[in-house]
């Protein structure tokens, strides 16, 4: 008889974490601008979803604004996604702007020094109005 049932452990772990810890919403603003609103947690599990959305939007829009105001956790995988999306935007002669009034996400961006390498606006209208 096994000491522990692996399925029981996996079910217990999965039930401890909400299924939807990341929310992504894309809104068009004219033919060349998109706003990607991110909510919840950006970590190793959810970062690939954010990467896919940002890559898809950068393929079609000249300006992509990433609204991080409602991000509750921004891990290293999320930082990597933002950095790589910025690099992709530069390579494609497109623009990526971030809006981040989340204390938690700002602390992560500041402490890693990444905030100095990305373009930020105070709010979404400012990010959209200061079009390149």
Description of the molecule:
Helix content is 43%, strand content 27%. It has 132 residues and is α/β, with parallel strands linked by helices. The protein has a five-stranded mixed sheet with strand order 1-2-3-4-5, with helices on both faces. The longest helix has 16 residues, at 76-91. The chain is globular and about 30 Å long. The N and C termini lie far apart (66 Å).
Overall 3D form: globular
N- to C-terminal distance: 66 Å
Order of H and E elements: HEEHEHEHEH
The biggest beta sheet is recorded as: 5 strands, mixed
CATH superfamily: STAS domain
The neighbouring-strand order within the major sheet is 1-2-3-4-5
CATH architecture: 2-Layer Sandwich
Number of β-strand runs: 5
**Please, how many helices?**
5
What is the mean pLDDT? 88
Q: Look at the helices and sheets and give the structural class.
A: alpha/beta
- Tell me the domain tally: 1
Give the percentage of residues in beta strands.
25-35%
Based on the model shown, name its key terms:
Transcription Regulator spoIIAA; 132 residues; alpha/beta; globular; 5-stranded mixed β-sheet; 5 strands
Structure at a glance:
This protein has 132 residues and is α/β, with parallel strands linked by helices. The protein has helices spanning 6-16, 47-60, 76-91, 103-112, 124-129, and strands at 22-28, 33-42, 63-74, 95-99, 120-121. Helix content is 43%, strand content 27%.
